[in-house]
Amino acid sequence: MATRKVCFPITSRAYYERSQLLIRKLHAHPDLELKLMLGGSILLDKYSRHIADDIAAGGFDIAASLFNVIEGGNHVAMAKTACLTALEFTNELHKAAPDVVVICGDRFEQLAIAMDAAYLNITIAHIEGGDVTGSIDESVRHAITKLAHLHFVTNADAERRVKAMGENPRFV
Predict the structure, then answer these.
(1) Could you tell me the CA-to-CA distances from 30 to 1, 33, 151 in Å, in that order?
(2) What is the dihedral of CA 34, 108, 111, 92, to 10 degrees?
(3) CA gap 31, 18 in Å, rounded
(4) pLDDT at 12
(5) Backbone φ and ψ of 61, nearest 5°
(6) Which is deepest, 50, 54, 81, 150, by most CB within 10 Å?
């Protein structure tokens, strides 16, 4: 079997902390080449002081660091950050040509990356699809679910919701 390239974009400290075990397993797998792409608040000292340094010190190769945050902390800044994320990550995903992009959760940056991968015909694996929050995050999560090809849900209710969205049960 040929080595498969897996891209794992990390845009927030919370997603990095929750994903460390998975990232370590992907990194250690002999048939996978892990490409970490950093962006969003994880690169800004204001939000995630030295996290990028900690990732590199953990033995991980950082394929790209993309500065894509518009400051402001409001909905306009979030929308503009999503647009800038789409621009920045499109080039890096095209250049890296991964077989799979792993999208975690429901952040606006992750939606932009999922959109990029979809247009570049890259398989999308989504973690946490089908969860509910009652906020804009839920709509973003469901949009990512519809773009994704592989669905890693966190519970039986989420599994039911993803299947109800019309996703192929074989890939949930």
Answers:
(1) 10, 8, 23
(2) -50
(3) 23
(4) 87
(5) -85, 125
(6) 81
Q: What gap in Å lies between CA 22 and CA 61, rounded to an integer? A: 15
Do 58 and 113 meet the contact criterion of CB atoms below 8 Å apart? Answer: no
Question: Hey, how many other C-beta atoms are within 10 angstroms of the C-beta on 72?
Answer: 11
Quote the CA–CA distance of 156 and 128 in Å, as a whole number. Answer: 11
* pLDDT the model gives residue 15: 85
CA-based radius of gyration for the chain:
15
State the pTM of this model. 0.93
Helix (H, G, I), strand (E, B) or coil at 130: coil
Spatial separation of the C-alpha atoms in residues 133 and 44, rounded to whole Å: 26
- The values of phi and psi at residue 94, to 5°, are -60, -45
- Encoding tokens for residue 89? 């990550």
pLDDT at 116: 98
Alpha helix (H) residue ranges in the chain: 13-28, 45-48, 51-57, 75-96, 108-119, 136-147, 156-164
Residues 68/18/153/38 CA torsion (nearest 10 deg): 20
